[in-house]
Amino acid sequence: MPHSIFTRESSAEPSSDSDIGHSVQCQKPSALSLSRTPLPATKPGLPAPTYPELRTLPSKVSPTAASIFQLPIQRELDLRPGKILKGLAGGRMNLEASLGQVRGSAPASGPCIRCARSWKPKGPFRSCIVVEGQFAGACCNCRYNNDGSGCDLHRLHTNPTAPKKPRNSSVKPRPSPPPRDTIRSQMVQRQLATIKRRQQSEGKSSNGS
Predict the structure, then answer these.
(1) Is residue 163 part of a domain?
(2) Whole-model pTM over 0.70
(3) What pLDDT, on a 0 to 100 scale, did the predictor assign at position 9?
(4) Dihedral of CA 1/11/86/101: which sign?
(5) Calpha distance 97→191 (Å, rounded)
């Protein structure tokens, strides 16, 4: 089996042919992709990424993915046993998380709860990595599959949003509609006034004749 490029395979050896299908394979990028934007700075000794989308960005990507792509690569892409990356060609959250995983840094406060748990840890990556200024503080594992708000490193949990500001005093509140009884009373008064005017008009006509 060819050596994986820029992807550290899990230490567990595949026990059958079906297990081999889950290991990360070397993918040879096309000539067209190699002619696009070159790979940004990489630490000496680190091989190139396995996944073509991590070497050359897809034609349509989010501004976040484009920004993270410009950062220097810091580590190999180390996936959990049996995990493969999906949805990178979409150019959004999964690509952002995968790019950030090899370019970010370990959280100063330690891994998030979901990355650290031993039973079904979150995400495809073996380590908990954050990218400064991105994903509202969430780690790349939680950002993968667009679940960043559930990360305990997300600002919703570390710095909850302030209560809503009071309504501007210069803006007058919309008056509430009058009660139904009031509306009915006003209608009766208008009808009585109409009848009174009609009677007065008829009285004047009879006096004139």
Answers:
(1) no
(2) no
(3) 47
(4) negative
(5) 71
